[in-house]
């Protein structure tokens, strides 16, 4: 990364409200945008980019204000992810996943655990990664008295080498009970493999990890008291919460694609030689493309903001979350996830109709928006999200909490 961190971030007062933090995120996006295409091609480990997130204060957005955090809620966090993703989908994903794993202690842990984790994370500006891919079920957790030992492998570990701490997940040996714990990313027993080589989201450090005898004290097992897990319905809110991160990641990438394409069209797209117009911005079909795609994007952004506000009401009173409230929220999340997927794919491919053949040059980097959306939207089949909505409409069925619903 060739750009530098604005020096006045260190001297300016920290933002105090949602709009202030969104402006700060826009400043970060402006820095990232200067060389986003080049960094995407290089695919280098984004150490500098993560330091930018730390210097700007975005990593501590959800942290308690009394410990140096931003004291903000999920409504703001989603908007910040969307803003950063306009410039760089990879860094937007890293930040969004960081927010979820930072919040995991509160979702799963006891009050004593999450208060300690959130205070330390805010004070030390921890950047979180997660080795919690649910389709890999071979991480075994062995009970050795006062200590738990994690051993196995995960195919994906987003954040890996750029993280300060990593959330681990495994199954307690001889049981069906899952255990979550937070460990130092540079600790003994964790080996991150440089095998993330996909067409999009190239800078997310999402490769595999080997977990070889990572030791964790029993008191650090999230949600466990005297080796027994204390379940709450709120524990199951992790899926709709991260799915809304996905939604805002997709919408941010789509908005960035539109903004970048519009700038190209204003300055470089040539009018069609048989159209009779002197400028591309006057071509009726070009105007129609931007009008159509923008209207669709704005509609889904409005739905995403509404669903985020609905979710915040659940986060505001975790102990009062019921199975019905959680299920109805998941249906709403599923609906906006389906629409965000469709509109982001349409926008990131449709812009080329308005920018023209020359815009497909590799140096322009316009393809990265589509590659990023196409890669991440395959995380889980969108048809199953539509099914959740359809089943609820037709039968009143609520989605059963799983790793994906």
TrEMBL record:
<feature type="domain" description="Acyl-CoA dehydrogenase C-terminal">
    <location>
        <begin position="245"/>
        <end position="379"/>
    </location>
</feature>
<dbReference type="InterPro" id="IPR009100">
    <property type="entry name" value="AcylCoA_DH/oxidase_NM_dom_sf"/>
</dbReference>
<protein>
    <submittedName>
        <fullName>Monooxygenase</fullName>
    </submittedName>
</protein>
<keyword id="KW-0503">Monooxygenase</keyword>
<dbReference type="InterPro" id="IPR013786">
    <property type="entry name" value="AcylCoA_DH/ox_N"/>
</dbReference>
<dbReference type="GO" id="GO:0004497">
    <property type="term" value="F:monooxygenase activity"/>
</dbReference>
<dbReference type="Pfam" id="PF08028">
    <property type="entry name" value="Acyl-CoA_dh_2"/>
</dbReference>
<dbReference type="InterPro" id="IPR036250">
    <property type="entry name" value="AcylCo_DH-like_C"/>
</dbReference>
<keyword id="KW-0560">Oxidoreductase</keyword>
<dbReference type="Pfam" id="PF02771">
    <property type="entry name" value="Acyl-CoA_dh_N"/>
</dbReference>
<dbReference type="InterPro" id="IPR013107">
    <property type="entry name" value="Acyl-CoA_DH_C"/>
</dbReference>
<dbReference type="InterPro" id="IPR037069">
    <property type="entry name" value="AcylCoA_DH/ox_N_sf"/>
</dbReference>
<feature type="domain" description="Acyl-CoA dehydrogenase/oxidase N-terminal">
    <location>
        <begin position="28"/>
        <end position="117"/>
    </location>
</feature>
<dbReference type="InterPro" id="IPR046373">
    <property type="entry name" value="Acyl-CoA_Oxase/DH_mid-dom_sf"/>
</dbReference>
């Amino acid at each position: 990364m060739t750009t530098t961190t604005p020096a006045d971030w260190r001297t300016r007062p920290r933002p105090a409200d949602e709009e202030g933090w969104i402006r700060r995120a826009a400043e970060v996006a402006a820095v990232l945008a200067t060389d986003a295409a080049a960094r995407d091609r290089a695919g280098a480990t984004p150490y500098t980019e993560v330091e930018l997130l730390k210097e700007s204060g975005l990593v501590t957005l959800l942290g308690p204000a009394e410990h140096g955090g931003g004291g903000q809620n999920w409504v703001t966090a989603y908007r910040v992810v969307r803003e950063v993703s306009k410039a760089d989908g990879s860094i937007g994903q890293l930040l969004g996943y960081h927010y979820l794993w930072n919040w995991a202690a509160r979702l799963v842990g006891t009050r004593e655990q999450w208060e300690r984790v959130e205070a330390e994370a805010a004070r030390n500006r921890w950047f979180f990664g997660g080795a919690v891919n649910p389709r890999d079920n071979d991480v075994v957790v062995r009970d050795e008295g006062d200590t738990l030992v994690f051993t196995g492998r995960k195919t994906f570990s987003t954040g890996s080498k750029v993280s300060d701490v990593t959330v681990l997940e495994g199954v307690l040996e001889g049981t069906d009970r899952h255990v979550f714990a937070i460990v130092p990313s540079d600790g003994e027993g964790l080996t991150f493999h440089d095998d993330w080589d996909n067409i999009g989201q190239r800078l997310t450090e999402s490769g595999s990890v080997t977990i070889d005898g990572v030791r964790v004290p029993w008191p650090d097992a999230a949600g466990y008291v005297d080796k027994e897990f204390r379940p709450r319905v709120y524990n199951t809110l992790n899926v709709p919460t991260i799915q809304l991160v996905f939604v805002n990641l997709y919408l941010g990438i789509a908005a960035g694609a539109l903004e970048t394409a519009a700038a190209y069209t204003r300055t470089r797209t040539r009018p069609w030689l048989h159209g009779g117009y002197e400028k591309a911005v006057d071509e009726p079909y070009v105007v129609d493309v931007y009008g159509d795609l923008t209207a669709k994007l704005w509609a889904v952004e409005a739905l995403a903001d509404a669903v985020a506000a609905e979710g915040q009401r659940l986060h505001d009173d975790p102990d009062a979350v019921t199975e019905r409230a959680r299920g109805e929220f998941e249906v709403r999340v599923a609906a906006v996830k389906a629409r965000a997927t469709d509109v982001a794919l349409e926008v990131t491919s449709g812009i080329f109709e308005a920018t023209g053949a020359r815009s497909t040059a590799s140096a322009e980097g316009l393809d990265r928006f589509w590659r990023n959306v196409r890669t991440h939207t395959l995380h889980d089949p969108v048809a199953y999200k539509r099914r959740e909505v359809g089943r609820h409409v037709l039968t009143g069925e609520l989605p059963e909490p799983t790793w994906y619903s």
